[in-house]
Amino acid sequence: MRLISSILYFSVILFSSVGCFAQEILDKEEVISRMLENNFDIRLSENEVEIAENNQSIWNSGYLPSLTGLAGADYDLNDRLTEPNNGEIVDQQGIESNRYNASINLGYTLFDGLGRYYNFKSLKEQYDLSRLQARETIENSILQVMSVYYEIARLTENIGVLEETLEISKNRVTRAQYQFEYGQANNLVVLNARVDVNNDSIAVLETEQQLKNTKRDLNVLLNREINANQFEVDTTVNFVNELELDSFIETAEANNVSLLQIDQNLEISEYDIKISKSGYLPTVDLTGSYGWNRNRSAATAFFPGSTTTTDGFAAGVNLRWDIFDGGTTNVQIKNSKIRYQSQELRKKQLESEVRRDIANALGDYENKLYILSVQEENVKTNLDNFNRSEEQYKLGRITSIEFRQAQINLIDAKTSLNLAKYDAKLSELQLLQLTGQLLNVEL
């Protein structure tokens, strides 16, 4: 008998351990790491950065010379009839002639009005712009994935609250059943307790289903198996120090990714003006070549056939100056200046919008923190009320309905606290993004 009991005991321990190990723990750092590696939007933005990096390399600058190889061969087969004014007619059939040529040509633009110089500078600015765009994609993806992550944490904590409530309700059914059996309560008390158990069970099931659905949402964002739900998340929440947050807000305009992008666009627009002005200046090209030619001609009525072979080097300098191009360059310069002015106006508008968004986000964040502190006090009050109600209920001084109301109030207080906690954290993340510090703090 002892052996059987021991086997059953260790079996329970074993299966419990297996169940524990089956639950993967996804902490915030691992989620961010997986997102950076697998998120589709981020991978697409990385491809755009790679394209921009290729474009700003020396191979796309126009500073390198061009080297071209050419080769050709011609073959002719003709019949020729020669009828001189005074002489014998010469009829030649199947006259063959052929020509061969090969050359290597070198071309280099010595000066193009500084167009390629400013274009090269512009390509480097476009590369920096693509990196800022990728950063913005990463920040938006972090906000999205952390929103889902914290929703999983909130639902997980809510399930804990609801399961605890369900256990209390089950104990209440047992207590009511005993009271009924000993004639201390009627059957209505038992039925009410069972109804509450059913309602609490339904609440647990519905919340568990919401949790499964939200985990699937996270799996999509991380490019994981959709139904890989056997994981848990970290439910701890830490907030940024107030002094540190104030320093972030003070330097927000220098770090906000949208403002940094508009600065890059201004630089690009300024280079576009200079590129357009290069059309007023001449272009100087250097050319060089080495060629080989071989010509074999058939004999004629008056000249014998011959084979000629030539080879040699050639070099030259070409100057091209569009003294008047119909006004195209002038129009391009005017349009480039207008685009630059538009970027300046857009920057002023964006600066105003960012200041407004930061002020709104800060107000919302402070409000959420206040709500959080109120909800913490509310939980303490409702917990104290519930404990007192439970004691009074056990002594028979309050009804089961009054006890149930105290229980519901505690549930609402705890779930509201969970909601307030994660809402405050998400508000903080949005504020950190606006200040340009989302990637520089521990989430």
Written account of the structure:
There is one protein chain. With 443 residues, the chain is of the alpha+beta class. It has two domains: 23-64 and 112-282 and 326-440, Outer membrane efflux proteins (OEP) (Up-down Bundle), CATH 1.20.1600.10; 68-104 and 283-320. It has ten helices and six strands. The chain has helices spanning 2-22, 28-38, 40-55, 115-181, 187-221, 242-250, 252-255, 257-277, 328-394, 400-434; strands spanning 24-26, 66-82, 90-111, 231-233, 283-297, 306-320. The strands form two sheets. It has a four-stranded antiparallel sheet with strand order 2-3-5-6, with no helix packed on it. Strands 1-4 form a two-stranded parallel ribbon. A hairpin with a 7-residue loop joins strand 2 and strand 3 (90-111). The model is unreliable at 1-21 (pLDDT under 50).
Shape: elongated
Q: Percentage of helical residues?
A: 55-70%
- What are the segments in which pLDDT stays under 50 over at least 5 consecutive residues? 1-21
Count of alpha and pi helical runs: 10
Topology:
Blueprint: H1 2-22, E1 24-26, H2 28-38, H3 40-55, E2 66-82, E3 90-111, H4 115-181, H5 187-221, E4 231-233, H6 242-250, H7 252-255, H8 257-277, E5 283-297, E6 306-320, H9 328-394, H10 400-434
Parallel strand pairs: 1-4
Antiparallel strand pairs: 2-3, 3-5, 5-6
Helix pairs in contact: 2-4, 3-4, 4-5, 4-8, 4-10, 8-9, 9-10
